[in-house]
Amino acid sequence: MVNVLMADAELEQLEKVKQILETSPRPYNFYPATSAKECRELLDRAKMDIVILDTGLPDQAGIEMAQEIRKMPGYEFAWMIISSPDFGQESAAYRLVHCYDYLVKPYDTEKLMDIIEKLGEYKITPKSDEDREMITFKQRDQYIRVLAKDILYIEVIGNNSTLYTYSHVYCLRKMS
Q: Around Cβ 5, how many Cβ atoms within 10 Å?
């Protein structure tokens, strides 16, 4: 399930995107917000995969809100789309916020849906310590590193060991 947060002061924009997401074959959780305050509350409540921010929020500029989100743990590299009635803040959106896309209103909702579909395929998740644990061993003149979670089992016969992973089999000579 992909979580999509959209912050926009225009209720009709929120409703339009909600309806489009409901017709998608991929399941989405849609979180609408009409202010930066609501946006913060939703970000505290659930981990968002895609954040769509309008530059015209009533209580805070959208670019400022986006910068604030970027500083939150887990959102440094989150997919972010900025919408605006003009191109005036486009360079700031890319330069300061590193947004994925910048849409000028009235934007084509089909284009927005295409972007959401594409980003929904690539959820950004932080690596756990388990994903980083590596086993290093020397084989002849080279060192080989294997993710610990990829090891199926190790077979030991005398001084020889065989390491079985999901994708490779390593024969380790004179290991004890």
A: 25
Report which of 98, 40, 103 is spatially closest to residue 72, judged by C-alpha positions.
40
Q: Are 51 and 69 in contact (CB under 8 A)?
A: yes
Q: Which residue has the tokens 């917000």?
A: 33
Res. 130: pLDDT tops 70 = no
2-120: CATH number: 3.40.50.2300
Q: Which of 10, 5, 7 is nearest to 106 (CA)?
A: 10
Q: Is 96 exposed, middle or buried (0-12, 13-18, 19+ CB in 10 A)?
A: middle
Global pTM? 0.68
Q: Which two tokens stand for residue 104?
A: 């000028």
**pLDDT tens digits, residue range 104-123?**
888 888 888 889 888 888 76
Region of 161 please: left (phi>0), alpha (psi -120 to 50) or beta.
Answer: beta
For residue 24, the model assigns a pLDDT of 87
Peptide bond before residue 106 is cis, with ω within 30 degrees of 0: yes
Intervals of CATH 3.40.50.2300 along the chain: 2-120
